[in-house]
Design goal:
The protein is mainly alpha-helical and about 375 residues long. The chain contains 16 helices and no strands.
Length: about 375
């Protein structure tokens, strides 16, 4: 047993990448066996892809064509363009081709996940121990098979995390790469706003020396967590007073809170309609908490169990960071960035819509799992000094 443990701890990068290949093979086999899935948005993207082909990939004509949808196709350019390419090259097999493309993004996401951790000198065997958690992530076993923008956006989030981490280590951000990633984000889905905001805001505040101490970072994040529902409560009344007659704004930003809705299409999570400011703040607080909720009445037992394991390990990682942080600056910065982008995403959807299947949580799953091996590395280094 001791020899086996020593072999694992001496795992090198070559062995790690081979393990990643096996992990990807397991995930890919599962998805190919399940097949692709179509939703309402998938059919809309397919129609838009047909239009793009009809316009001979002229994006200008495509963007300004007559559109009855609430949101411009500009904000879904990336998935629609990829679907159009798949239709032109593979014909009737375009859905299988798009699934294959999504799985290719899963593979590259796993590589980037590992490279990000290796940049900050996380031991390969700790990354290796994290792979089962990724393989058993319900989100990663669900969303890549959908003909949607989710995998495209999730890949851009993990890519942005890598570029930001490289900036921490080199003490110099590659603004050109970040700009390209943010442009692709906004052209992938409109709900990319919190991701873009998190990148810009983090670059701005990380320059201040106050945010080089873990206690200050934790207090700042706690303050944000507490104040967000209060700010949203004020915004709710401001929007209702000034824009309440605008049907689109009312539908997107007010109607769900007025109904006491927490999770969309899950009435068991709803509460009574608000009667005053405190009720509105309470609803926003519940929505913010429930964005990370691992439980739903309709989930299977294994689904709930795997979600709880994932949630527990992420929370444990944050606790370990709060205890053993400040050892290495790059660890603290990456923890800060991942928690901030996760909180930013949760806040945005708490203010707008938390989907029935928590679909909008998927893009931040890999970055949040990344916290686990970092916290283990912190713990190892702390006890190495004793």
């Amino acid at each position: 047993m001791k020899k086996f443990f020593l072999k694992i701890t001496n795992l090198n990068e070559k062995h790690l990448y081979f393990s990643i290949l096996i992990s990807f093979f397991i995930i890919a086999c599962y998805h190919f066996n399940s097949g692709f899935s179509m939703s309402g948005d998938s059919h809309k993207f397919s129609r838009w892809a047909d239009d793009l082909i009809k316009f001979k990939f002229n994006l200008y004509e495509f963007f300004f064509k007559e559109n009855s949808e609430r949101i411009s196709p500009f904000f879904f350019t990336v998935p629609v363009f990829l679907i159009a390419i798949c239709k032109v090259i593979f014909g009737n097999g375009w859905q299988f081709a798009f699934l294959s493309l999504n799985l290719a993004l899963v593979f590259f996401s796993l590589i980037i996940f590992s490279k990000t951790l290796l940049i900050i000198k996380i031991r390969p065997f700790l990354i290796f121990f994290t792979l089962p958690l990724i393989i058993l992530s319900v989100d990663l076993l669900t969303w890549p098979k959908f003909i949607l923008s989710d995998m495209n956006y999730a890949f851009l989030i993990i890519l942005a995390t890598y570029v930001m981490t490289k900036g921490f280590v080199e003490n110099k951000y590659n603004y050109f790469h970040l700009f390209l990633i943010m442009i692709l984000m906004i052209m992938t889905r409109p709900s990319s706003v919190p991701g873009i905001f998190a990148i810009l805001f983090f670059i701005t505040i990380s320059k201040y020396h106050y945010f080089k101490r873990v206690k200050v970072i934790i207090l700042f994040l706690f303050f944000l967590f507490i104040s967000i529902p209060l700010v949203f409560g004020l915004l709710y009344y401001f929007i209702e007073f000034n824009f309440g007659e605008n049907s689109q704004i009312e539908w997107w930003l007010l109607s769900k809170v007025k109904a006491g809705m927490i999770i969309h299409d899950r009435p068991e999570t709803w509460v009574d309609s608000p009667s005053d400011f405190n009720d509105v703040v309470y609803i926003y607080f519940l929505r913010l908490i429930n964005f990370f909720n691992p439980y739903a009445a309709t989930f299977s037992g294994i689904h709930i169990f795997l979600n709880f394991i994932q949630t527990f390990l992420i929370l444990l990682s944050i606790i370990l960071w709060s205890i053993f942080g400040t050892l290495i600056r790059s660890y603290d910065k990456l923890f800060f960035f991942i928690i901030f982008i996760s909180l930013s995403t949760a806040s945005f959807h708490s203010f707008t819509l938390i989907d029935y299947d928590w679909r909008y949580r998927f893009p931040i799953i890999l970055p949040m799992i990344m916290l686990f091996p970092i916290s283990l590395e912190m713990t190892f280094r702390k006890f190495d000094k004793i």
